[in-house]
């Protein structure tokens, strides 16, 4: 399974999705964004896939940004369509019930950083470099970076990162709370797959509801978020997974979840 610029490998409930345009550091051309949209939709609909890990091919880059050669000749109307196409993708990844882990194996810049930020969390290789260098090209972030970084880092750090266009090392990105963990490059994808496998063993309806509560809750007041959490929490008590998970605990056996 795969497309012109994407490799897809599905094993034991985990899909490993690799952006495969290493000659241009996996830059996001419109065609790559369309392939990503189509592939994420297919993986979301595929019952054999429970968790997705996304990475870049080659040793240098996760994704070095939107394709500058393509953007160089865009007018404002084309740029608006391009930004909305990228935003549709990052919004889809954020809202899909299945968890998505970004394994950032090198440069994650501009649209590449924004793609990683759309995922549920990020692991990085020790040689990774991350940032939003759009202002060095005379533009600004357009695939959600200004909104996501302001919420994740707070206004001051988001401002500094975006106004300077500077790159953070993997260690700095961990210190800033952008990445959860840093691994030697050769171990990165294996570690992400290990974490994905651990999630696959859990009640995936609970995982999906938790993802929804966290995502939607971030846009609510805390009391509204608590209210929303209680509704999702309660709905799980009508699920097979709740009966199986608690039954298995009482019977001192491993649960066998069905995600229903
Ligand atoms: N787009 C197109 N081609 C790229 C890109 C890119 N983003 N990045 C690298 N490449 C190409 C290079 O042109 C080069 O091609 P060639 O071999 O044909 O010359 C090849 O990849 C290898 O790159 P380098 O030789 O430059 O490799 P270095 O190791 O010397 O440098 C860097 C690596 C530092 C990552 C460097 O390539 C670089 O600075 N790349 C651009 C990074 C960047 O500015 N990214 C942000 C782009 S803007 C963006 O993503 C906006 C998103 C929101 C869009 C909003 C809608 C309008």
Describe this protein's structure.
- Strands 1-2-3-4-6-8-11 form a seven-stranded mixed beta sheet, sandwiched between helices. It has a four-stranded mixed beta sheet with strand order 5-7-9-10.
- The protein has helices spanning 30-45, 68-71, 76-95, 111-118, 145-153, 155-164, 170-175, 188-200, 204-217, 222-235, 240-250; strands at residues 2-3, 6-11, 14-19, 51-56, 61-63, 100-104, 107-109, 121-125, 129-131, 168-169, 181-183.
- With 260 residues, the protein is of the alpha/beta class.
- The chain is globular.
- It has eleven helices and eleven strands.
- Residues 24-25, 27, 64-69, 71, 79, 82-83, 86, 107, 109-111, 133-134, 137, 141-143 line the site of octanoyl-coenzyme A (CO8).
- Belongs to the enoyl-CoA hydratase/isomerase family.
- One of its GO terms (biological process) is fatty acid beta-oxidation.
- This is Crotonase.
Distinctive features:
single chain; 260 residues; alpha/beta; seven-stranded mixed beta sheet; four-stranded mixed beta sheet; 11 helices; 11 strands; 48% helix; 17% strand; binds octanoyl-coenzyme A; Enoyl-CoA_hydra_C; lyase; hydro-lyase activity
Shape: globular
Global structural class:
alpha/beta
- Hetero groups bound? octanoyl-coenzyme A
Please write the string of helix (H) and strand (E) elements: EEEHEEHHEEHEEHHEHEHHHH
* Strand order of the biggest β-sheet: 1-2-3-4-6-8-11
**Helix count, DSSP H or I runs of 4 or more residues:** 11
Q: Average pLDDT, to the nearest integer?
A: 97
Give a quick account of the main beta sheet: strands, pairing sense, barrel closure: 7 strands, mixed
Percent in strands:
15-25%
- How many runs of DSSP E, i.e. beta strands? 11
- Poorly predicted regions are none
The CA-CA distance between the termini, in Å, is 26 Å
Rg (C-alpha, Å): 19 Å
């Amino acid at each position: 399974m795969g497309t012109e610029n994407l490799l897809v490998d599905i094993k034991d409930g985990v899909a490993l999705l690799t952006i495969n345009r290493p000659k241009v550091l996996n830059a996001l051309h419109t065609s790559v964004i369309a392939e990503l949209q189509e592939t994420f939709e297919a993986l979301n609909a595929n019952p054999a896939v429970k968790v997705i890990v996304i990475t870049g091919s080659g040793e240098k880059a996760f994704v070095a940004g939107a394709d500058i050669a393509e953007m160089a000749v865009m007018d404002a109307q084309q740029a608006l369509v391009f930004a909305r196409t990228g935003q549709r993708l990052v919004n889809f990844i954020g809202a899909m019930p299945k968890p998505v882990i970004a394994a950032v194996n090198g440069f994650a810049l501009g649209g590449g950083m924004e793609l990683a930020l759309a995922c549920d969390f990020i692991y990085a290789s020790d040689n990774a470099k991350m940032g939003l260098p759009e202002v060095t090209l005379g533009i600004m972030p357009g695939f959600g970076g200004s909104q996501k970084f302001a919420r994740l880092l707070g206004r001051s750090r988001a401002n500094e990162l975006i106004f300077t266009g500077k790159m953070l090392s993997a260690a700095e990105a961990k210190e800033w709370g952008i990445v959860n963990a840093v691994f030697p490059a050769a171990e990165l994808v294996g570690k992400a797959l290990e974490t994905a496998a651990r999630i696959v063993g859990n009640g995936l309806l609970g995982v999906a509801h938790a993802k929804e509560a966290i995502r939607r809750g971030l846009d609510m007041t805390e009391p509204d978020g608590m209210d929303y959490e209680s509704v999702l929490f309660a709905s799980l008590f009508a699920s097979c997974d709740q009966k199986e998970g608690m039954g298995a605990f009482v019977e001192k056996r491993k649960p066998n979840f069905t995600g229903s």
